[in-house]
Amino acid sequence: MTKGGFRSVFVTAKDGLKLHLREYGERPTPGLPIVCLPGLTRSSVDFHPLAYALSHDPQRPRRVLALDYRGRGRSDYDPNPANYSIPVELDDVLTVLTACEAEPAIIVGTSRGGMIAMAMGVARPTAIAAVVLNDIGPVIDVAGLVRIKDYVGKLPQPKDFAEGAAVMRDLFTSQFPKFTERDWIASAYRTWREENGKLVLTYDPALANTLAASDVNAPMPDLWPQFDSLAHVPMLIIRGAVSDLLSPQTVAEMCARRQQCDVLEVPDQGHAPLLLEPETIAHIAAFIDKCDGPI
Questions:
Q1: Residue 282 domain flag
Q2: At 285, which CATH number?
Q3: Whole-angstrom distance between the N-terminal and C-terminal Cα of the chain?
Q4: How far apart are alpha carbons 203 and 70 in whole angstroms?
Q5: Residue 139 falls within a domain, yes or no?
Q6: Domain assignment present for 192
Q7: Is there a contact between 236 and 135 (Cβ–Cβ < 8 Å)?
Q8: Tens digit of pLDDT for each residue in 83-119?
């Protein structure tokens, strides 16, 4: 284990691309493994506070895998941007689960990661023991989609992280109204990295192509069949209280379609909650413990 509390692991996708993940904790552990799937432009770094806490739990330390999809973080960029799609990324996730002997797993999916988890419920239901859907559901509100489409792959190149923090503050104050300057700086460090003396995005700008064909004026297809494929597993739904992507109405309908459902609303955060506050981490840890049963 490295000083940061995790080891970097690389797995080769079916088409030869190198996929990166962070592995926290030791193998084997008595409990189910946790697999963290980030949002569209996000990376494994987002899950560090949660993954570190779960893997260092004094009573039940967990093995946690936090993935970088192709084109994000330390994974290879795809020369064909059309492969930045949920079917391809789902196949990558399943390849990683097999290579790392991490099935079945408790999936923690933020935004796009939750969409992949729902798709996994159809493609390989035996891979999922439980699921945490972080600010995502079968219905995506158009306002949030428009906002995301407006910035993905189009962010300016700041001269330093302080300037990057200002960019993030201008874009995301509506979603994170209580952020401090320190929070915005941390957000900048998750969005850009230093390369050859310059700041570059931590994802392939060609990801913008995945949204280019979205017609925000047309009815959005829903994912209710994929959501219903997870009816056999425990579920925790997390919603940011000011989210513009997941509505309270959609959360209510999600719960109505299930016999049992745990819901956590994170105050003063929108899309998507960062999963780093002690209260949020404790709630997720308690949910995971219930999925495993008594020690």
A1: yes
A2: 3.40.50.1820
A3: 25
A4: 9
A5: yes
A6: no
A7: no
A8: 999 999 999 999 999 999 999 999 999 999 999 999 9
Cα 98 to chain centroid, rounded: 20
Q: How many domains are there within the chain?
A: 1
In tens, the pLDDT along 115-132 reads: 999 999 999 999 999 999
User: Is position 197 within any domain?
Assistant: no
Q: Which domain holds residue 229?
A: 6-144+221-292
